[in-house]
Amino acid sequence: MLPSLQSTTPEQLQSQLSQWDQPSYRSQQILDWVYRKHVASVDEMLNCPASLRNQLRSAYRLGLPSCEQVQGSADTTRKYLWRLEDGAMVESVLIPANPALYGEASDRHTLCVSTQVGCAYGCRFCASGLEGWKRNLEVHEIVGQLLAVESHCAQELNTGQDRKVNNLVIMGMGEPLANYDHLMRALQIINAPWGCQIGARKITISTSGLVPQIEQLARQPIQYRLAISLHGATDEVRSQIMPINRKYPLATLMQACERYVQEKGKMITFEYILIEGVNDGLDQVAPLANWAQRLHAKVNLIPYNQVDGLQWKRPELAVQEAFLKGLLNTGIKATLRREKGHDIDAACGQLRLKVQREAPQPGTAV
Ligand code: SAH
Ligand code: SF4
User: Fold this and answer.
1) Are 94 and 78 a contacting pair, CB within 8 Å?
2) For residue 338, is pLDDT > 80?
3) N or C terminus of the chain: which is more exposed, having fewer CB within 10 Å?
4) What is the pLDDT of residues 130-139, one digit of tens each?
5) 29 vs 7, 38, 53, 350, CA distance in Å?
6) Does 348 sit in the ligand 2 pocket, CB within 6 Å?
7) CA 328 to ligand 1 center in whole angstroms
8) In this model, does residue 239 exceed pLDDT 70?
9) Mean pLDDT value across residues 75-80
10) Is there a contact between 42 and 53 (Cβ–Cβ < 8 Å)?
11) Which residue among 91, 138, 150, 271 is the active-site one?
12) Mean pLDDT of the 311-317 span
């Protein structure tokens, strides 16, 4: 299969252009079409001569994931369900700033992208892992989610080349650090001045706690932000809902996080979903605060988003607030997410699961 233009570096492109005896300024033009104008086909590269377009078509693939479904509207959380070349589906969620409700800067638009089709880690509360792991996303499929969302927004708002996304969270379907090499290459493109131009400090990678890859990430030079999906402050509670905790228990995970913080001099975030009767007891507050203090981490409490077919529930608001208050009383930094997108299946993997389950199975009478 041909390499994708969306995973080709300027150096590789330059070298190909010089083999074709094309002037080197063409490289910038091509990158502009791909990353500024989000074209899905070489045919749209109007300032490139037909001979070059033919050469590009013979050497590279170019396309954007096709949009299977969009939920939400321009000023609320919007969820995209993409169909990839092999028919697999993944999700991205665009969370526009909401200055009125959340006091955020109005130019901040966060996109959450997926890194795998399904997930092998089987956290008990999560829709992404319910039907197992199918495959890793390719570099261009990770970058393509961002390009396709920007293209969609530009068309919808009729703003031509305006950029939309300036904050990226790798918190969609899949375990990002289990697709480490593709993720790193995709993020380089997303971060590059010739690529999507999103600053490394505006990119957050969320992991369920893959210790060797956290250590690898600590050693690589770009300063991405790291979020750890904790969801339990003791091994007893965490192992109940996250099988990965049996392989990398909290003490081991925290050692890796400590090395990350030392190496990078960066603050990390602990994501902590509040699930009724599982991890929302006040007995979790002290151990959670201890880990956060030790690592100078911030805690982001997230009310659980109910998943069809799973028994877990979101605790009452009073329980959520008591948990937050308990944490704040210890002096650590903590926030409770007043969640956006609850009504549109915005937690990772939910929309795909629903669409797949509603779709007629092969051999089923419709
Ligand atoms: N695999 C990575 C990133 C994808 S999951 C990880 O686990 O960190 C992104 C975040 O969504 C994680 O913190 C995950 O625990 C959380 N999540 C999964 N299902 C959820 C649900 N139903 N409600 C709220 N958050 C959920
Ligand atoms: Fe996978 Fe993350 Fe979901 Fe766990 S929470 S099953 S690691 S996507």
Assistant:
1) yes
2) no
3) C
4) 889 999 999 9
5) 16, 12, 12, 39
6) yes
7) 23
8) yes
9) 83
10) yes
11) 91
12) 95
